[in-house]
Amino acid sequence: MYIEIDHSSTICAYMQIYQELRSRIISGAFVYGAKLPSKRVLAKECLVSIITVEHAYQLLCDEGYCEMKPRSGCYVKYCSDNFFPVSDKKNDSTTPSNAVIIHNDNISFSTVSSLLRKVILDSGERILMKSPTGGSAELRDAICRYLARCRNINVSSEQIIIGSGAEYLYGLCIQMLGRDNMIALESPSYEKIHAVYTANGAVCDMLEMDSEGIRPDELERTQAKILHVTPFNSFPSLITASAERRHYYLEWASHRNAVIIEDDYDSEFTLNGKAPQTLFAQTTDENVIYINTFSKTIAPSLRAGYMVLPKKYLTLYNDRVGFYSCTVPMLEQFFLAEWLDSGEFERTISRIRNKNE
Fold this sequence. Notes:
Layout: H1 13-27, H2 39-46, H3 50-63, E1 66-69, E2 73-76, H4 109-123, H5 137-150, E3 160-163, H6 166-177, E4 182-187, H7 191-199, E5 203-210, E6 213-214, H8 216-221, E7 226-229, H9 243-256, E8 259-263, H10 279-282, E9 288-293, E10 305-308, H11 314-320, H12 330-341, H13 344-356
Parallel strand pairs: 4-5, 4-7, 7-8, 8-9
Antiparallel strand pairs: 1-2, 3-10, 5-6, 9-10
Helix pairs in contact: 1-3, 2-3, 4-12, 5-12, 6-7
């Protein structure tokens, strides 16, 4: 099998092999169940090392195009009838030139499409149902299990609220806690956080930061009773709050009888292999509301996030904003539940961490 390796290219050899094989698999040159050439044979024909070919085959397996069978070889498991079409065109006229494209090294489209197909077949007409107000039981339960095994957060499904992204959940928070409140924010902070709160009538107090997070003297200065923080990799400063400063946030909230809204966006991508402990998991005062989304860990088009409420706020939530309908379609909720329970979410995070190390 002839594959020409361009050694002058900026694309490494294993990626060239991977891209060519993937193209041939999608085009039908290799049908479902076909065996790819052995690593030794392909390495000899391409004048590369066996390790290079092994990397390419492993990537095909990670993407869901092939599977390795012990002591047998690499076999194609892609079938066009089982997946939505994948375009290899570099300049699709329907795609804006400035669009953000998810690289297949991170998210396997074939895996996504396969799971979506499974969900449609398994759930049937249930995907057309109206979602319960807080979100489907399947997704809330799946999130509970994920948080328990990966984030040391042990809660019941009734504490999970599903919504269409973090911005929507910010709005629910301020409506629940009261629009006449002052909210303390990191300075600088993600501009939409400020925009959502002010649009809801709240007053924002911007607190200066140092290399460890919000400065203690700024926390002492503010009269706010609500603190919105992004402890991990705050945008745009990229500051991650130190363990001491996180503890200070909790002490401040306890002494002030204040509420912390913990925006845990992006924390899954810590490079040390373990996401930092959340404020929600550390406190015993039930004064932290935890928010996270799937927009970066899966896809920006997937407008789905979740909020974890302390039990003492459930009555307040139901009384003030519990009438809102869930804004995430049931198909997406069933897909996310399957993604979490199948372990694919954690495998994806692991691949991205390994790539970025």
